[in-house]
Design goal:
The chain has two domains: 34 residues, no CATH class; 63 residues, Winged helix-like DNA-binding domain superfamily/Winged helix DNA-binding domain (Arc Repressor Mutant, subunit A, Orthogonal Bundle), CATH 1.10.10. The protein is 62% helix and 7% strand. It is built from five helices and two strands, in the order αααααββ. The chain has a two-stranded antiparallel sheet. The longest helix has 21 residues. The relative contact order is 0.12.
Length: 107
């Protein structure tokens, strides 16, 4: 049963990726949300402070751990952050880039 659920999760992730690739409007909406002012500030905060856990990041940003977890997992799917599992399953976020450039056709 666990293997079937894991496989279902992989299928859903693949379908999400294919929809993302195929639908330009969907890409725009997702990128606009991911790269909002608030989320760009979050990426900068991670890059500068190198937090050791989501809890530490939540404390410094004022965002809830649940909100951060969802946001960062989405950002990880699009390659904007890396989440490392530490002791006792704690996630440590990392921004592996100094700069990010977006090349997108607008018309």
């Amino acid at each position: 049963m666990a293997l079937a659920l894991a496989e279902l999760g992989r299928i859903e992730k693949t379908l999400h990726s294919l929809n993302y690739i195929d639908d330009e409007n969907r890409r725009r909406v997702i990128l606009r949300q991911l790269l909002s002012n608030r989320n760009r500030a979050l990426l900068a905060q991670i890059a500068v402070t190198h937090p050791s856990s989501l809890h530490e990041l939540a404390t410094t940003t004022g965002r809830t751990p649940g909100n951060l977890s969802r946001t960062l997992k989405t950002m990880e799917r699009y390659g904007l952050v890396r989440l490392h599992k530490g002791e006792r399953g704690k996630l440590r976020p990392e921004v592996p880039y100094r700069d990010v450039q977006l090349d997108m056709t607008l018309s």
